[in-house]
Amino acid sequence: xxxxxxxxxxxxxxxxxxxxxxxxxxxxxxxxxxxxxxxxxxxxxxxxxxxxxxxxxxxxxxxxxxxxxxxxxxxxxxxxxxxxxxxxxxxxxxxxxxxxxxxxxxxxxxxxxxxxxxxxxxxxxxxxxxxxxxxxxxxxxxxxxxxxxxxxxxxxxxxxxxxxxxxxxxxxxxxxxxxxxxxxxxxxxxxxxxxxxxxxxxxxxxxxxxxxxxxxxxxxxxxxxxxxxxxxxxxxxxxxxxxxxxxxxxxxxxxxxxxxxxxxxxxxxxxxxxxxxx
Length: 278
Fold this sequence. Notes:
By secondary structure, the chain is mainly β.
């Protein structure tokens, strides 16, 4: 698990840093656990573009991940660590004692041959999934459920980990990687350990073409356009809107930075003890 650099034979290679994929033990996916991934190009069912900057990219298949970990009490063996093009984390292929295979997000330190289990009686070790009330405070956890039985929704990307800080009645207090502190029901499941691939944050793509391989198209800045095309366009030199200052907005005038999008009376406000933005 690390990064590889390149000799600067071209300008794009000079700053390129990519994963060396040394932690992978299996290089072809389990095809029964994959599905076709259809492209939209940013267009909706009417063919109208609703998301700009999307298009092209390498063909990918979606890997079906077991976020629920609902095979309670059945022992599984780790058969391989694989690459998943749809997420920053690596995934692990599990084979259960009854012969069923499933993918999970691979935590750091998980090795081929390890025995994993989920359920309230599972051992407190990396990769096992337990109810939050059974996990000791201070242990790193990921793939945390927000609603019982729905499957993990929080802390699922590379190198992330949360911590339980307190337990009170039917709720536990969890500190998330963003800094948010919130209450989650003690019967919700979480997986022990920090997610692997910690070097993901240090990857440098090196050139615009590699970004296009990921399905991202470049779009011009609003300030570089004409006034007819964008509220921030036009003017003599750099100016946000026809010579005068204009708050950063989208082409249709919606605030682009700092505009609140969360509903004021959202039900989950009662469970958030400290917002990530203090």
